[in-house]
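INTERNAL AUDIT FORM
Audit reference: QA-55
Scope: verify that the stored structure record matches its stored sequence.
Auditor: D.O.
Record contents follow.
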Amino acid sequence: MTAVTITTAGFEVDATLIAAAFAIDPATLQARMRAGEVTSVCEAGVDADLGRFRLTFRHAGRALRLTVNADGEVLARAMFPVGVAKANHTSSTRRGK
């Protein structure tokens, strides 16, 4: 398997690639993904970026971003700090008369 494989169900990324980026082993990565501690998002390119995809993985205040083409070839790889996601809370405001 290459680092990124595109299937009819979506993208499959080699766990060793992601785990190495976050300095953890693949088994720990999988456990943290199941626990929601490692999250991911896929963005499809438009216009000049049509046929490219950004796969972003976040964990412990860091992000790994892979830019891949339609064949799954990794075109770019970046690591950068990100804010730690917090729960979304809704607040209500009371208006006095």
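Auditor finding: record pair retrieved intact. The two ends are 66 Å apart (CA to CA).
Action required: none
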